[in-house]
Design a protein that fits this description.
2 copies of one chain form a homodimer. The first copy, chain A, is α+β, with helices and mostly antiparallel strands and 454 residues long. Chain A is built from 18 helices and 16 strands. In chain A, a hairpin with a 5-residue loop joins strand 15 and strand 16 (441-444). At the A-B interface, helix 1, strand 1, strand 2, strand 3 and helix 5 of A face helix 1, strand 1, strand 2, strand 3 and helix 5 of B.
Chain lengths: 454, 454
Amino acid sequence: MAQLPSIPKGTRDYAPDIMVKRNYIFDTIKSVFKKYGYMPLETPAMENLSTLMGKYGEEGDKLLFKILNSGDYLNRASEEYLSEKNSVKLTNQISEKGLRYDLTVPFARFVVQHQNEITLPFKRYQIQPVWRADRPQKGRYREFYQCDVDVCGSNSLLNEVELIQMVDEVYRRLKINVRLLINNRKVLAGIAEVIGEPEKLVDITVAIDKMDKIGLEAVNAELKEKGLSEDSISKLQPILNLSGNNDEKLEKLKSVLAESEVGMKGIEELTTVFDYLKPLELPLDIKLDLTLARGLSYYTGAIFEVKALDVEIGSITGGGRYDDLTGIFGLKNVSGVGISFGADRIFDVMNQLELFPKDGSTITQILFVNFGHTEEMHCMKLLQKLRNSGINAELYPETGAKMKKQMGYADKKAIPFVALVGEAEISNGTIAVKNMESGEQTNITITELIEKLK
Amino acid sequence: MAQLPSIPKGTRDYAPDIMVKRNYIFDTIKSVFKKYGYMPLETPAMENLSTLMGKYGEEGDKLLFKILNSGDYLNRASEEYLSEKNSVKLTNQISEKGLRYDLTVPFARFVVQHQNEITLPFKRYQIQPVWRADRPQKGRYREFYQCDVDVCGSNSLLNEVELIQMVDEVYRRLKINVRLLINNRKVLAGIAEVIGEPEKLVDITVAIDKMDKIGLEAVNAELKEKGLSEDSISKLQPILNLSGNNDEKLEKLKSVLAESEVGMKGIEELTTVFDYLKPLELPLDIKLDLTLARGLSYYTGAIFEVKALDVEIGSITGGGRYDDLTGIFGLKNVSGVGISFGADRIFDVMNQLELFPKDGSTITQILFVNFGHTEEMHCMKLLQKLRNSGINAELYPETGAKMKKQMGYADKKAIPFVALVGEAEISNGTIAVKNMESGEQTNITITELIEKLK
């Protein structure tokens, strides 16, 4: 036989058993989003390159998948670039569209483009694939789904509270034990200010963001390398070592940051969020973590990260507030706050901990064995009754196929029950129902079967 | 302000109100697919060009969106093609991936690639976007969703019956009045044979496929133009004018096609399908239509098309059996049969006939007006109770925002109820609930509200 066909590296087929599990995750998350009034949005896979370029840094531009213009695309290409084989410069002449790299830039683009049609605050969720021309490696793909929920056009910290409530509900329903880490970029800015290195904010956040991974000593070494004075680094130590519960930490921070206006604003925001949360008595473990910085991103207020407690894996959800979501497209003063659920990692956690519901990789509840033409005609009427009662059921389609083949089909598809309806059952109006796990077999009526499966 | 950002021509944003309606369609269709044991499958947006090229004809190859290779893609490009500006030949050197053009080729590719892991018959549905570099025009897009359901690896005509049952159930649930047209390619082959033009099968099917649009005379003219003899054309007339119910038509056809083996096989297949269907007593209007040919496609057995009866629009669902689904990838003897639901057209039909459920463009059932800090703290506890009962509810996030703004938000988002909880309501433990359509307002308890909205 010829070589098997394949798919581009870094991409995946989602086979049915995987899809059913993924849908379980997405359906759970979506139902929570809807409970809080978030509406679905979808944007095209292709965006104009003018929309995408320059939004993800120089490295990001390189990782965009670019689409070749249709037709005679070389027609107007510059002879100079062609003869030079200048890939970088030629790209602009032969490609004007790219695949979306994330869901945030398309969201911002949508809000600006449709600013006269939408009402603020605008609450949307979006679950779609994104594409990045990264080198594929374990756990890193070139096509993967993002699952974002954001609200824009509202400065209220109630939005932050709502996002935390949603995190609580999603993970309770998925039965994953998690801890939510919270911090505030203004507090980080305040820290940089009071240790006397305000212009080193980015270096400081990048370094302390690594606390979890590389530890205090390595972080201090990195800060020194970045040019922070011994004095600044030593001033930073009590902050990195801050202990106690959230209230105690905030209390201590207040005195440390007393001289920084932005820092005090950050503390006020955190305090407000905690004050909203207290009476709600969420079971969620929420921890103020000053070493949480979320890299070099565009956040300006609250930042969040969610960690699974029973599996060693990076954060499974993250997000925060960004004060100038739509400024890149010319619309000022629209603040946004949102979080992104990491579907692939949530899948891995649930798989590892066996948290998917037991019937979580199948769809069909019962398979009717096909014994022959008379039997299949009889079974089709029974199937009609089952389906009218909302039960997912199949008849093996090949008339009188070998029993072994039919049972193998049920087994492979993880169908929990098999119905055997032969001459005897037809004449006495029953169905022999076999439990595929226990092997147990009982004769019941169609009414009893519907009752059993509902 | 700068110019508004835009999206590539032929693509669309699906705004929340549209998404809710689209999801209503997809959710209905999916739940029917599941009832019959079809499992979800998703494949990557990008396929290798070797998978896609040559599968859709020469015209199709041109309509594939091709993805520029990453990095220094010109490095190994031929100087000759560059200096010639030979777009066609250069493409193979600078692009090795393309966006999928339909869901059938990726399905066939999946089945062949994973032939050792899947069990036949393999029943899958797939709802994903496809991309075609067509010239955009009204109703034709460069990105659109296909919604396919297919089974492969089973020759049983029970599969055809099942697909018809699904069509019946989908459109009954969507409340669209439809007629299902059915024909069989073998019958068409038989017709070509008995009129003495077996090698003109394609011309004949293409011409008679147009009966609906251009009428009998124009079809005859086209057949003449294609080189059919007067004799052949006159032999074809009784077939084109066949009248009566399905059984009567089949009976007449039997005598017309008596000399054609393939034709009689087609009649036998149609008869078997009708025999299976009769005892099921589906409400669906099913009509044998010999002028149904479904163009130049690869079908070899049954062919289907569904037309909406109350709106002038092309077919909203179509499909059929293709005997050699996976042969293009080297796996012989795997027959497939399936249908594709046209999501865009179904959407248009439902919109035009106002068939979407009344609350079909919203998600939130009730909005709590935000009167100020005390009130919002009180409302958040009430919201917890509503959401715990599965009710989608929102609190306007801006503390004490103007009433007009908040009501406008509810209005724009089509939220059916607004809750007003001020000082008086807090003290007497009630909620003033306003019906946004009737304007009616009642004071009720949270328990009563939950009862009302459930």
